[in-house]
Design a protein that fits this description.
Blueprint: H1 5-19, H2 27-40, H3 45-52, H4 57-60, H5 64-78, H6 80-86, H7 96-113
Helix pairs in contact: 2-3
């Protein structure tokens, strides 16, 4: 059976309406969702724009607001300053940085001895 675009779009629009998510249509909902998910998963915005047929990057930039939210969440969860704040007495606990510097110092000392 050949693909019938109009049937597909009508069916999707009906299900979107029934889901009561406050959105309309199907085609643009799919395009927006695909572009947003690709951007969140690391795709370059220029490639997304090319797939969507945008001639200007400005047209694709509407998707970046979602990526900025995700970036802020990742920054909050993984920034090194956050782990230092959780340590009660950072001076008493050696950090990965301290371990790395000690290893580099030891390695430099070995090279000098040779």
């Amino acid at each position: 059976m050949p693909f019938n675009e109009q049937w597909f779009l009508t069916t999707v629009a009906k299900h979107v309406r029934k889901a009561n998510i406050g959105k309309q249509g199907g085609r643009h909902l799919f395009r927006h969702t695909m572009a947003t998910l690709m951007l969140e998963n690391g795709a370059d915005i220029r490639f997304i724009g090319a797939m969507l047929g945008h001639s200007a990057l400005k047209s694709t930039q509407i998707y970046t607001h979602v990526a900025v939210k995700q970036l802020k969440a990742i920054h909050e969860a993984t920034h090194p300053a956050k782990s230092r704040k959780r340590t009660a007495n950072p001076a008493a606990t050696p950090t990965a940085r301290d371990d790395l510097l000690a290893a580099l110092d030891a390695e430099a000392g070995e090279e000098e001895a040779e």
